[in-house]
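User: Round two. Same drill as before: sequence, then structure, for each protein.

Assistant: Same drill it is. First protein:
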Amino acid sequence: MVASDNFAEFLREQLAPLGRVTMRRMFGKTGVFCDGVMLGMVTENTLYVRVDDHNRAAFQEAASHPPLNYEKQGSSIDLAFWRVPERLFDEPDELVTWARAALAAAHRVAAKRGRATSGRASNPR
């Protein structure tokens, strides 16, 4: 399920210190982009952010929840997006800190894949 309009607007406001935050529907979910780089996904108004080997230790609190996943040929495939703890929505500065770490991971993933990490904006919703 995609992010509600209210939740999407809340995220854009909260994550504004990172840069231009946009949302785009994809795979039945909502992708969260900053300056064209996908740092997170929302499903059922729950924010999941990009995690990789460099920032995994900082996200151990998020590891208590299963990562975002999808079903493929009868198997569950975990994605590198971990659920943000609910308490962060009451701590805007810490939410931005987590999002900044997720954005750094998203840039590393994009660099590995040979994609530009700036200059390409997504749907400006």
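Second protein:
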Amino acid sequence: MPNKNAISLRQFTVLVLLMTVGDSLLVLPAIPASEAKHDAWISALAGLAFSLPILWLFGIANRRFQGLSLIEYVHERLGRTVGTVLGLLFLLFPLTCSAVQIREIGDFMITHILPETPIQAIHLLFIAVILFGAAQGLEPIARTAEILFPWFLLLFTTFVFFLFPQIDFRNVQPVLGEGVKPVLRGALTAAAFPYSELVILLMIAPYVTNREKAGKSLFVGAVLGGLVLITVVSLCICVLGHYVSGSQLYPTYTLAKKISVGLFLERLEAIMAIMWFISAYFKITIYVYALHLGIAQTFKLNGYKPLLLPGGMLLVSLSIAISPNIVHFQTLITRYWPYLDFFYAIVFPLVVIGAHALRKAENSGPGGAAGKMKPEAR
């Protein structure tokens, strides 16, 4: 193993929560708002409910690993050739997800904060910080997340507290006025982005000190992160209304601009930007770490750190090449990306569980190890 860093259950839970929030904090509310209108908060709740079987599937797969990562497990159970093919197919997921999330950061920065700065410069600066974090290893990443999490929680509490006086519950009426189908369409995306993408945690779950309870920690962290997102979606609808929330690329950032306390505390959108940077940073860093760790495990390398620089250069190029402009990028994300997330979140854990069941059946059959009697016992 190239890295034997161990993290505690609490650190793992914090990582799961921050990864669940991730980039969804800024971009997710627009999608259910455009589909379900004023029922977007119901879509967010339904998305969490629909994700529970997926999270349960992750927990089952993790118990089958027996201390191995997903890449190591498919190599051991399915053989070198099939394991390598499946492993490389799986690694396409963190590769594309990392590039997409870096692109989201670049688009946001040139849209709202640094409009005159080339997007390539923003990508280079951000990927440099990500590569530095990934090079430190899993334990320093988890410890840093544990340190920054109270600040994230403080900023989120402040954000909700200052917006609470502006809530107008008339914006959520009538409930289910558009029917159930729009709610289900919004719930599809609400389940895909935050929760299905947690499948990458099957690469680092073996490093949790108490592996037997890692599945429970994953479940708890994902649900807590989901509650944060449900709160944010509900605030967008109750304060901005469904039309503004659905028409904005970053409705949560627009929501933060609504904070106004007296005549001295206004325009605190920096609160939202800091929360987003914290959660998105740890999500991308874990993806980049898992990507390079998986490559090292696939090709039996001694370590993953020499891969970080060329991998970072590839991610910067891919983040630009993945879409020609922000409109095309948003169409790609909203229409097609959820199906890719569901494919990796459902198919690969099922492959792991199926391989485990097949090996168990072979070992317990007449020709297996359990079915071979000693000569003197016959």
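The mean pLDDT is 85.

User: Perfect.
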